[in-house]
Write a structure and sequence with these properties.
It is a single chain. This protein is mainly alpha-helical and 637 residues long. It has four domains: 89 residues, no CATH class; 235 residues, no CATH class; 150 residues; 59 residues. It is 47% helix and 6% strand. A four-stranded antiparallel β-sheet has the order 3-4-8-7, with no helix packed on it. The protein has a two-stranded antiparallel ribbon with strand order 1-2. A hairpin with a 6-residue loop joins β5 and β6. α5 packs antiparallel against α6. It is elongated. The two termini are 67 Å apart.
Length: 637
């Protein structure tokens, strides 16, 4: 969801992981990347979108064109063939340009870049197993990658017709013994099933999601997220999955935000707020990942709308309910990106800075360098309040500071923030300690400077010989970045939506409590019968040849020639050869069926038919092996 890269990020070779949303650096050569936060793999892809005709008015915010942006890196690496939306021919696009022209038909199109997650193919559902399979696995008689007991539990939950028994079986997922790779492997089938099942079953199965995400094994995170992504975008689905995702680490933030945005677009406000509630919970549980999670929320704001945008602004300005603030350098860089992509949010993000005055010249020099490197003047003006007065009344640093903001006074769009920044530079100095370089600068530009700046100099008692004594400069406070009426409404919607989502969750807990307690009192077996094995035994190792007697050894038995075995009896070598042949035929048949199931257009009834055939073949193989074992004569040659 929402995997198209904003233009500013594509040009700077930065991206957002399509699995968890964490920022990642795209490599200069090649298209594949691996996220250091969640471990997911992704691939940079380009696609062409046909240009739409111009409409009567443009509702998108104005994005000023900035020249000379030297920090952007030219995209390199493997060229990718894109398909023209006009004639269908493929050609290599010029990735350095947003607009493309087809060399075959001349159609113009827009180049979009996206990061696509590399995901595994869908897996076959759990099969019915027997206690014989369980015993064979415990005795190391089979080579099987999944835990037989857990697979049978999953199969029982999917196929048990009685509700109370089904709830009882699902309650096994509250035990950490069931939190293993087998549960993670079959989780997509469990989650798809509970969307149609009773809420009580969904609540118990959902416990497996939370425990897998809370496990010490980080390898569960990506498959669990991929499994949940298959169901959570259904606004009529089970909200318990959203609550369980909230128990995970920071890798779950992006999925919950995407769910919230989709629900908001479909008018499901409470469902969207429930997903945002989950993000709040994740921030409260994972203090060591606050920085990466804050960046995920920040860059999802490129896409967020409606109530979810109101939540994002509210949570970011409020320190994520845990007093956390994104490091100022990252927030300043983000302001530059938002000035290009979504300038209407600059005023809100500007209020997220909580940074005191620089205490050393090195710190102040660094702040100047970061502001000077910003590509967009709007971003430089919005972030200007982080500068403050030069430490130690430094003459040179003070002059660099005021000259940095002076050009921004000429543009009405940046004037207000530039005035605020200059007031902090001058007004932050101690009384009578404004650097002479700043006083000279004010005197030089006296006729063009706003009265608010002159008033700061007079208030600092450093205006002697600079400002006319007859002039009176009245104090005025800095204008506040008041939310727009639209944003105020979004914040109100978030407040009402989160209250409704919490009330719904607690009410459902009370309604499900009786049925969950009734089910817990039952004793429901996981295995229905002992039955024959459904999983073939692993091939035994070849027997070692008997040692040949040493020459002249009179105790060695003499070769009496081949002796015919007893009628119907098999030697060890004969038995093993026959078992190997049967197992090879069984394996080939299973592989053929699996290949058929991978073909497109396979219906659900075909899955059931093939599963039944595999079960019957496994039972027949077990009977044949038992028959051969009964004819085994270890003394037969």
């Amino acid at each position: 969801m929402f995997d198209v890269l904003p233009e500013i990020l594509r040009k700077s070779r930065r991206g957002m992981c399509p699995t968890c949303g964490a920022p990642l650096k795209l490599i200069e050569a090649g298209r594949d990347a691996r996220c250091d936060f969640c471990g997911g793999q992704c691939r940079l892809e380009h696609r062409l979108r046909k240009l739409e005709p111009e409409v009567g008015f443009d509702e998108t915010p104005r994005r000023d064109k900035v020249r000379g942006v030297t920090r952007w890196l030219s995209p390199k690496g493997k060229r990718e063939q894109c398909e023209c939306p006009g004639c269908g021919n493929s050609f290599a696009p010029e990735t350095g340009h947003s607009h493309q022209k087809c060399p075959y038909c001349g159609s113009e199109s827009k180049l979009e870049a996206r990061l696509a997650a590399v995901t595994p193919h869908s897996t076959q559902g759990p099969q019915r197993r027997t206690e014989t399979d369980l015993q064979n696995q415990r005795r190391d008689r089979i080579d099987y990658p999944w835990d037989v007991w857990t697979e049978q539990l999953c199969w029982r939950v999917l196929n048990e017709p009685d509700l109370l028994k089904r709830v009882n079986l699902a309650q096994n997922f509250s035990s950490w013994g069931t939190i293993n790779p087998t549960t993670a492997h079959f989780l997509p089938h469990l989650l798809a099933h509970i969307q149609r099942d009773h809420d009580a079953v969904a609540r118990e199965v959902g416990d497996a999601v939370g425990k897998l995400l809370c496990s010490d094994d980080a390898n569960y995170a990506v498959p669990v997220l991929q499994a949940c992504a298959g169901v959570v975008f259904d606004i009529h689905g089970k909200r318990t999955i959203l609550s369980e995702l909230a128990l995970g680490r920071g890798v779950c933030v992006k999925l919950l935000l995407d769910v919230a945005e989709v629900a908001n677009a479909l008018g499901a406000r409470d469902y969207a707020c429930h997903a945002c509630w989950g993000v709040n919970t994740i921030f409260g549980r994972n203090f060591d990942q606050h920085e990466t999670m804050a960046e995920i929320v920040l860059y999802r704001m490129f896409y967020l709308t409606g109530t979810v945008l109101g939540w994002a602004v509210y949570i970011f300005k409020g320190g994520f309910h845990c007093g956390y603030r994104l490091p100022w350098k990252k927030l300043v860089t983000a302001l530059d990106d938002f000035a290009h992509e979504r300038p209407e949010l600059l005023g809100e993000l500007r209020q997220c800075f909580y940074l005191g005055h620089a205490e050393t010249a090195a710190d102040y020099t660094e702040r100047l360098a970061v502001l000077r490197a910003l590509a967009h003047p709007h971003a430089r003006a919005a972030a200007g309040t982080i500068l403050g007065p030069p430490p130690g009344h430094d003459e040179q640093l003070g002059l660099e500071a005021v000259e940095l903001f002076h050009p921004l006074l000429a543009d009405q769009a940046t004037r207000t923030w530039a005035v605020m920044a200059l007031r902090k530079v001058i007004g932050g100095c101690e009384k009578g300690q404004v650097p002479q370089s700043i006083r000279n600068w004010v005197k030089q530009h006296l006729d063009t400077l706003p009265p608010e700046i002159k008033r700061e100099l007079r208030w600092r008692e450093s205006d002697k010989g600079v400002l006319p004594e007859s002039e009176v400069y009245y104090w005025t406070s800095d204008p506040k970045d008041e939310p727009t009426p639209e944003l105020k409404q979004l914040l109100a919607d978030w407040d009402a939506g989160i209250r409704s989502a919490v009330d719904t969750r607690y009410r459902q807990d009370e309604e499900l409590k009786p049925i969950r307690e009734q089910a817990r009192a039952l004793d429901v077996p996981v295995f229905l019968d002992q039955g024959p094995a459904t999983i073939p035994l692993k091939t035994p190792p070849e027997p070692e040849p008997a040692p040949r007697p040493a020459p002249g050894d009179e105790t060695a038995p003499q070769d009496a020639g081949p002796a015919a075995p007893a009628k119907g009896r098999l030697s060890t070598e004969q038995m093993m050869a026959e078992i190997t042949r049967l197992q090879s035929e069984y394996a080939q048949a299973v592989q053929q069926m699996a290949a058929e199931l991978q073909k497109p257009g396979v219906a659900e009834r075909d899955y059931a038919r093939y599963a039944q055939q595999m079960l019957e073949m496994g039972q027949k193989l077990q009977q044949q092996i038992e028959a051969l074992t009964s004819r085994h004569d270890p003394n037969a040659p």
